[in-house]
Specification:
Blueprint: E1 17-28, E2 31-35, E3 39-42, E4 47-56, E5 59-69, E6 72-77, H1 81-88, H2 106-109, E7 118-125, E8 131-146, E9 159-165, E10 168-172
Antiparallel strand pairs: 1-2, 1-7, 3-6, 4-5, 6-9, 7-8, 8-9, 8-10
């Protein structure tokens, strides 16, 4: 029996997701927001495993090595305050334009700020709004921000591309999900 003949079958749809973080970023006038409701796209976590090759006489053996989690890319719709908030949040990661010749914020070295933006959660839903899976990025921090492209030939909303690096990701799925 094919899956498309089952009336109860519902494939996962890419537009049913929510992106949130425990600390949130200042992306609006209201200050920190826990949910990134202006997120247009997000890549789900992925990883690669290194391998080593060993030779024993005339036989080669491959052994799995270290797991490396690949960065997650987020595209946000620029709603005006997004850019201001992201630039302001650079101070969270130690950057300060008035911090001296090197631009390093000295308070970061004293432990008064955090290098992390908190845990980022990527939730995927079904048609009824029930959570199918939740990815939690542990030790997440922004490693790259691209503030978009301008084009006289387009009336699209400007997209901000954010790359997030993290230590590892945890997957939670409800029973039966």
């Amino acid at each position: 029996m094919s899956f498309w003949t089952e009336s109860s079958f519902e494939p996962r749809r890419s537009f049913r997701f929510r992106l949130a973080s425990t600390n949130g970023l200042e992306l609006s006038n209201t200050g920190r927001v826990p949910s990134w409701w202006n997120a247009k796209t997000v890549t789900k976590p992925s990883y690669s495993v290194s391998s080593s090759e060993y030779q024993l006489v005339n036989q080669k053996f491959k052994v799995p090595g270290v797991v490396t989690w690949d960065p997650v890319t987020i595209a946000l719709a620029d709603l005006g305050k997004s850019v201001e908030g992201l630039v302001k949040d650079l101070s969270t990661f130690g950057w300060n334009p008035n911090g001296g010749d090197d631009g390093l914020d000295k308070t970061r070295l004293q432990g008064e700020t955090s290098d992390e933006i908190g845990k980022i959660r990527i939730e995927q839903f079904n048609g009824a709004g029930e959570v199918l899976e939740t990815w939690t990025l542990e030790g997440a921090y922004i490693s790259r921000v691209a503030f978009g492209n301008l084009d006289y030939g387009s009336d699209d909303i400007v997209e901000i591309q954010i790359t997030v690096d993290y230590d590892y990701a945890l997957l939670e799925q409800p029973e039966g999900g």
